[in-house]
Amino acid sequence: MRGVTRCAAALLCVWSIAGAAPVAAQTATGEIFGKVADGTGAVLPGVTVTLNSPALIQPQSVVTAESGGYRFPRIPIGTYSVTFDLTGFKRTVREGVIIQAGFDAEINAKMELSTVQETVTVTGESPVVDTKSTTLAASYSKEALEKIPSARDPWVIIEQTPGMIMSGSNVGGNLSGQQTGFSVFGSGSNTQWNLDGAVISDIASGNSSPTYWDFDSFDEIQITTGGSDASQQGAGVQINFITKSGSNTVRGSGRFFETNQKFEAQNVTTELRKLNAGAGNPVQDIKDYGIEIGGPIQKNKAWFWGAVSNNKINVGTLGFYKPGDCATTIGPNSSALDASGNFVYSLDQLRNCLNTDQTVLTNANAKIQYQETAAHKTSFTWTDGNKTRNARGADVFHPLITTSVQRGPTFFYRGEHQWVASNRFTINAQWLHIHEDWGLYFQDPSLVNVQAINYVDTGYWDRGKSGADYHTIRPQDDVRADANYFLSSFLGGDHSMKFGFAYRRSPVESINTIGGGAVARIRATQSTCTVGGVTFTAGCNEANVTRNGDYSYILYARSLYWNDSWRTGRATINLGVRYDHQHDIARSTSIPANVILPTLLPALTFAGADSGARYNDLSPRVGFTYDLRGNGKTVLKANGARYYGLGMYTASALEPTTASTLRYKWRDLNGDTIVQTNELDLSNLITFSANYDPTNPNSLVSPIKVDQNLKNDITDEAVVGLEHEVMNNFGVGVTYIYRKYHQFQDQYRTDPADISASFNPVNFSAACGNSTTCGAQVFSGVYFQRPTALHAAQILRNNTQYNTYSGIELTARKRLSDHWMMTGSLVHNRQRHFEPNPDSDYLDPTNHSPIDYISGFENGTRNGEWVGKLSGMYQFPWGVNAAANFNAFTNFPWNPNILSPNRTGSLGQVSLLLQGNDTARFPAMRQLDVHVDKTLSLGQQRRISLNFDVFNIANNNVIRSQVERQNSSSANNVNTILAPRIARFGVKVVF
Length: 991
Prior knowledge:
With 991 residues, the protein is mainly beta. Helices cover 6% and strands 51% of the residues.
């Protein structure tokens, strides 16, 4: 914690002299607006304002309104010149105006009288502070993507965003292609992914990215975290990828990067080896190569751009060993000591024993843009992304045979048309189709008939796939239109309005197949059971018997929004409202009977169902900005917003055809460790799936109902901040954020007999399962159980739980100028969880009694009190660039627990917390990466860049996850540590 404090102090000093991150709306474009006046300050209507930029196929022009105001909405990112012409006045030109995604650049002009043709040119004064928007966001330019050291993965760019905490740390690419989880401002849900402004989120997997990406296909990446206007639905992180485009000149690049184990350090200490850290999580070899090219089909009329890439990532995973001696002898004895107290096996031996977890990402992209007339422009984008992985889920508990083979492509087709109807009115319409067809498959098709073994006490799996063979098909269609209208001199000011609608259709079908129809669960301490009329006083284990699942539904979403930025004097008032409708329908499916228990888990044909619940959400937004000095350099901002959740998930409650599991005691009568019908104690149902009614196995209706008045989850937000431009291209910002997350939902029992008073406390003690790490300690806790089973009937309804978040964000940003750029941020977080009404928020009191749910407690697996980030680049002479990226935060919580026995009442087991939730944490996380490159010029527009990066330069080995269960034989063993220092070499050719 002391190290994080020092980091916080350093970042605070940097903030005091540095520049703020731009704030932006979630879009692939930006805006230039302003007013024109004469030398006396009188407004000038009728001035012709013209935009020129390499980003435009053709120049754009408008004429100032009666207020002297003008506006260019939805212009591509790039660098612009703005020219002001009016007869009798000197032509005025503003050069070098930088537009990033969502940024509103206010460019005002004062025109001087002149009787001859003269031009006044102003350069180097591109605005840093957005005087209109209240959105909290960060945009990463092409220079930042290329020069700031990163694993060349979009998720590591997300990590650079102020306050962002990732579920894992990517060192040199060891986590690339794995969709690292993230959270900010107390939430990791309701994320929205966008490609060139089009929504591409995979609604079926909690709004994740639907594919993986070619890093060199991006011109810019924009990350929005809060303070949004009515054009945005959810409060979660918004990620927008802005892809490259063609131009009037043929341009392109090719690259090759390699990260190899030959240039990797060791960071596993003796102390970590004693915690079974083995060889850690090293990179074995990563190759990243590709080419992209764009140019004119017809100059000033039509452009093209295309790219292909391949990224092959080979990594070692802690405890995942090659077959043979490595898996049977060396790996299991990785921490063994000889008679002299030395380790039997060296770190090199362990590292060479690690099996390869390989991910291969291939991508192909294409874009065509056509300017039919000055008022009409059309573009079409195609994306083909594919991921294959040989051993998804591999770790110390999952050998190769238990892991998944992942494969399957994702295609995108996107069309867009822009119509500039007049000086004041612009319309954008777009259509998007996504097709996902992928799965997590058996290592070998023959494993469909093989039951996996789970050694419950250690967590180890063997013989077959630990999860279901999974195949999912997810096509999505999205149609939307957005318009911008400029209304001048109305109600004492100018109004920049935007409004639009969207329609989305998202069908999903996911099929699950369990190998052999069951999982054998082996325990160290075996229990009694009655099988075939014979009672066995010992030697009984457990079996999960599962009927395969077919989950099929369709989600519909429709939305309307309107937002007005009302500019009067130095103030801008942002008023907006949006309406969102969402509903889902469970579709008809059929599933076969389970081969072991065909009577209790029979074949089902489900006709489909509609819960009748509908989300009809009205979201108000109000924002305010005030230019304190009237020069656009010091702006006070405030915003209030209500957001609703993205997606609706009632279909899963209604479908009896999702996978159903029954757990029974099992006596292996013939000693083959294969679960068979005659070996099950069917008189004792330990647990059963929520969608299954044991009193009516043939039911075609799920025992779960849906409350007809079910409501969507809500996020209420208040933001207050100040932004200041210290000097050209350099600004600072400070923001306070408050959020309340509420109106959550869950499934609850409905039978009157299922009340909390029927739960009885049981004192439970368990000895440490790993004498090496916790000696002979005995741990105690209290769990609750029932004398009779809970009834199957449940209801999906809202509860009264809620979370609160408050935080202070300090930001700094220096655009690339005078040979350097820099970004810094420091965020202090506080988040709390509340369950104020036990009767409505939960039934089982286990783990509730020792925690104050009324006053709230710290909660969440990805949170930290302090989050600090600092990155920058300097351009030295002779074509040499040097850059660094530093990330530090208060590390993840450590919540030790003990696992209870099976509880009566078909409640199964439960983990008992041994201390207050999130009261202990791993040591602070710190990672520093550096980059150097040398550019060799080969003539006009052609150059070669030689790149060298070092990741985790301090060779930090902080623990990221550890076995928290204390009555496990692997208690306190390390699951993940930060990957060791490693170097990457690369070459890039630009032409």
